[in-house]
Design a protein that fits this description.
The structure holds two protein chains of two kinds. Chain A is α/β, with parallel strands linked by helices. Chain A contains ten helices and ten strands. In chain A, helix 5 crosses helix 6. Classes of the chains: A alpha/beta, B mainly alpha. The structure holds adenosine-5'-triphosphate (ATP) and magnesium ion.
């Protein structure tokens, strides 16, 4: 469903992605892990076409997107829902306007139906009675959950979560974990989850990839992660600072 | 070498802004607008500058009247006060003053608003939800400015003329009817068209420059920079285009 071939991207002198190969199958929940600053967010934005790669190819549903015009790209994006790492809620709109944003722009659902749908979706992420608040009145974790609601309300085929559980309390984390699992089961969405919270990640993932030094150095099934012999992955899993990965190496 | 780089940058900037303008016009004519939010935008821009325009237009009207009267005294022809005040206001000062005020107020807030959306990834979010940022953020501002500026200019002209009348009536005891008759007689269609054409140009300049700059920052430090820059650039372009248009209307 999503296929990356030797994707490179740099910012000025800094090579962030140095040839990423990745294959995400339809209907699976894919976990991307990596240290802070490894380029996970850059990779997600490249997949969505928000950033153009310097070289390499990306295909979504076997369509090459790196050369597409802006308007064609826009059509492809409608397949995606993205939860931004920093939520990126529209701060001039209320929660309910934020969550219903896609429906308002692309469907002609009535206001009443939209309100109903919004409160249902908010309930899925464990929120209620905040529809008329503005994003700045919410806590960081609540904002993140509103962002999740905003991304899944229109049942996109592929949902990308950038750190969906950081800054959220354990009970709400559990809610989100079961939400991602549930979406996967009921609607067979393809999910791409980025996190450095490995424990939570492994609860939901089918397959895992590890981004280090601008390349994917491990890609495999969840079980393979636990039995891995790769020293660098082991070090990441165990979370120790001494080992093959140097402190400054991302 | 430094100069070459500057010249290259300048042409790059011009090129980018031209393709930006092309996109604005593309979206302006392709999509239906939500009239309610458009109305809100227009009212917002109008109200934002209303008070300052009133104040400054009134005073400028009085200042020109004093200045003109001083010069006319030497020829003993104070009777022409009304027409001279009206002409300078309608052809020149009304549009320029209104445009500078709108650039400083609405222009700055447009740049800051778009800029802060850009750095908090809200612009990216719009794209993810299949909404073109230029269409959603820029076109309504463009329409609002192009609608508001002519209205503000006419209002500034009227208040300025009233300011002139205050001086005329207090200093030379001109009756209201006479002052107004002389004002209206002195103004031709071309004078009024001149002022309105200018205001349309200035409104567009403010929209183009201030929105374009809004998309450029990468950090919050950049936001304050682009706000300053967008005001300075709007001011410069307004004055330059004022000169060009004044020359144009002088020769036709
Ligand atoms: N617009 C940009 N301009 C310049 N450098 C950038 C830009 N965006 C990202 N980078 C650089 O790319 C690198 C990777 O950033 P990215 O945000 O993808 O990290 P990440 O893996 O998502 O980390 P985290 O887990 O902390 O979110 C960073 O070193 C950052 O400095
Ligand atoms: Mg990140």
């Amino acid at each position: 469903m999503i296929k990356l071939n030797n994707v490179q991207r740099s910012f000025g002198e800094k090579n962030v992605l140095k040839g990423v190969n990745l294959n995400i199958n339809k209907g699976e929940t894919f976990l991307l892990i990596g240290r802070s600053g490894a380029g996970k967010t850059v990779l997600l934005k490249t997949i969505l076409g928000l950033l153009r790669p310097d070289s390499g190819t990306i295909s979504i549903d076997s369509q090459e997107i790196t050369q597409l015009s802006k308007s064609r790209l826009e059509k492809i994006r409608l397949k995606f829902g993205l939860v931004f790492q920093n939520s990126a809620l529209f701060d001039f709109l209320t929660v309910w306007e934020n969550v219903s944003f896609f429906l308002k722009q692309h469907t002609d659902m009535s206001r009443k139906d939209m309100r109903k749908k919004v409160s249902q979706t908010l309930a899925l992420v464990g929120l209620a009675d905040i529809e008329d608040m503005y994003p700045y009145e919410l806590s960081g974790g609540m904002r993140k959950r509103v962002a999740i609601a905003r991304a899944i309300i229109y049942n996109p085929k592929i949902v990308i979560y950038d750190e969906p559980t950081t800054g959220i309390d354990p009970i709400a984390v559990d809610k989100i974990v079961s939400l991602i699992k549930d979406l996967h089961k009921r609607l067979s969405v393809t999910s791409l989850v980025v996190t450095h919270d490995l424990e939570t990640g492994l609860k939901i993932a089918d397959r895992v990839a590890f981004l280090l030094g601008g390349k994917i150095i491990f890609e495999g099934k969840k079980e393979d992660v636990k039995n891995t012999k790769d020293k660098r992955l082991l070090q990441f899993i165990q979370g120790v600072s001494g080992g093959p990965i140097k402190e400054m190496e991302v | 070498m430094f100069f070459l780089k500057q010249i290259e940058d300048f042409f790059c900037y011009v090129g980018n802004i031209i393709s930006f303008i092309k996109e604005i016009f593309y979206w302006l004519f392709t999509k239906k607008r939500d009239l309610k939010s458009l109305g809100r935008e227009i009212i917002f821009v109008g109200i934002d500058s209303f008070f300052l325009v009133s104040l400054i237009a009134l005073f400028i009207g009085m200042i020109i009247a004093f200045q003109t009267a001083y010069q006319l005294q030497q020829f003993k022809s104070e009777i022409h006060l009304a027409s001279l005040v009206a002409l300078s206001l309608v052809r020149e000062l009304g549009p320029v003053i209104a445009a500078l005020i709108v650039a400083a107020r609405s222009g700055a807030s447009i740049t800051a608003g778009i800029g802060s959306m850009k750095i908090s990834e809200q612009v990216d979010a719009l794209e993810v939800f299949g909404v073109e940022p230029i269409d959603y953020l820029v076109v309504p501002k463009f329409i609002a400015l192009v609608v508001c500026l002519p209205v503000l200019v006419i209002y500034a002209d009227l208040l300025g003329i009233f300011g002139g009348y205050l001086v005329g009536s207090l200093k030379f005891s001109m009756p209201f009817g006479l002052y107004m008759r002389m004002t209206i007689e002195s103004l031709g269609v071309i004078d009024i068209a001149n002022g309105l054409v200018k205001s349309l140009f200035f409104g567009s300049i403010i929209a183009f420059v201030c929105c374009f700059e809004g998309f450029r920052p990468f950090s919050s430090i950049d936001v304050s920079k682009v706000v300053t820059r967008s005001i300075v650039r709007s001011f410069i372009l307004i004055i330059v285009f004022d000169c060009i248009l004044t020359a144009f209307f002088y020769f036709i």
